[in-house]
Write a structure and sequence with these properties.
By secondary structure, this protein is mainly α. Helices cover 57% and strands 8% of the residues. It is built from 8 helices and 2 strands; from the N terminus they run H-H-H-H-H-H-E-E-H-H. The longest helix has 18 residues, at 105-122.
């Protein structure tokens, strides 16, 4: 989801018009519209103003950044929203669950394959190098299409 799409999603959830949000953030309505349409990208200063006006963390409307814990948490929240990921606690080990009914067979298939390969590494059936080669070769289509090898 783009920054503009996130801004729009939160604006609509708060039942605000573009004009209202623009006024609350101290900016022009056309400027906000251009952000939502993806024609322009807000500066960090503008993002902070918009986030404050929406009552959300700046991470909630920013591009994903996994360089810190706040960014990682926001990515996890987006995965929950977009794909139904759920946190779970198994005797103190925190993990992520993807329910079978998420509607994304391709994603579920990919997660199952990842789980299987990770299990092989944990059991010593493959080396870390073999595991890394599998992970980094898993998605082969640079166009952004999720590719799952059917023959594996």
């Amino acid at each position: 989801m783009t920054v503009g799409e996130k801004i729009k999603r939160f604006r609509i959830a708060r039942q605000l018009s573009q004009k209202q949000l623009a006024e609350m953030a101290g900016m022009s309505e056309p400027g906000l519209r251009n952000y939502e349409l993806g024609n322009r990208h807000p500066s960090e200063k503008q993002l902070k103003k918009i986030a404050e006006a929406l009552g959300v963390s700046v991470y909630a409307i920013s591009d994903p950044c996994i360089d810190n814990c706040s960014g990682v948490m926001q990515v996890l929240f987006e995965l929950e929203d977009d794909y139904g990921f759920k946190p779970n606690d198994a005797d103190g080990d925190i993990g992520i669950t993807l329910k079978n009914e998420t509607g994304s067979d391709e994603l579920l298939n990919g997660m199952q394959k990842w789980c299987a390969e990770s299990g092989k590494l944990d059991r010593g059936e493959i080396t870390r190098e073999e595991y890394d080669n599998w992970r980094y070769g898993f998605l082969r289509d640079v166009s952004g299409t999720f590719i799952i090898d059917k023959d594996e």
